[in-house]
Amino acid sequence: MQILSLKPPLLAPRPADSHKGSFGHVLAVGGDHGFGGAVIMAAEAALVSGAGMVSLATRSEHISAALTRRPEIMSCSIESNQQLELILERPSVLVLGPGLGQSDWSQHVFERCLSATQSMVVDADGLNLLSQLNSRKVKKNWVLTPHLGEAASLLNVNVVDIQADRLAAATELQNVFGGTIVLKGAGSIVCDNTGAFVCKLGNPAMSSAGMGDVLSGIIGGLLAQKHSCSEAAKIGTWAHARAGDLAAQALGRHLMATDIFPFLRRLW
To answer: Which residues are within 8 A (CB) of 190 and not within 5 positions of it... i.e. 6 or more apart?
Structure first.
């Protein structure tokens, strides 16, 4: 297993004549009742990571909070099938799952987004709903970002089995679902069809809710900038962990997920 590191050529200087359309359009989808923060953080992370445009599709109750937090994000409510269809016409990349929940609304949104052709990152309740499908879904152009519990659900085993051999679990997830897998944890593993890479960065101060939502948005932002799923997962996992290390050095033993944004921007 190889050690994950950032290769500078993957982050080339931006052309002088570039514009917002040059760097893609991410749509973050999620935020059922009471869970708007997760998808708002994912959307902001995509914006901070360099996506040219970022939209947010969520319950109407979260729109005012999203606009207050980050007015650069185009925030749209999805309360009907027609609204969702119109929103899905625009983005080049989807980040599906943060705060999505598992209600009837969540199920409909998930199934429609899963049938989209865009590259996507699937996280959180998107992974829980994926594990409940009657048949396996395989895609080349997605990144799945499970933690141990979500990985166990996807493979229909228990968490002890995953923790006993995390490399084998990441490899099996990639074999079953295709695309690129980021198995999160202490020493996150990125697995694609060429092999596995371990990230030795990161620290216990990052053990707080929302860190995974931020990671999914970072990877989505990199996908929008035309990085492959493998590249986006590797760069995103490394940068997320490195920003967390910088934040811990500056702020102490416990971080909130959004604490890493200034340090992430410094890295870029």
So the answer is: 4, 170, 180, 181, 182, 196, 197, 198, 199, 230, 233, 234, 237
Residue range 167-183: average pLDDT?
98
Selected from 3.40.50.150, 3.40.50.360, 3.40.50.620, 3.40.1190.20, the CATH number assigned to the domain covering 23-267 reads 3.40.1190.20
Which residues, 6+ apart, have CB-to-CB distance to 257 below 8 Å? 41, 208, 209, 210, 211, 213, 214
Burial class (CB in 10 A: 0-12, 13-18, 19+), 69: middle
pTM: 0.97
Q: Please give the structure tokens belonging to residue 15.
A: 């052309």
DSSP label at 129?
Answer: H
Backbone angles phi, psi at 150, to 5 degrees: -70, -40
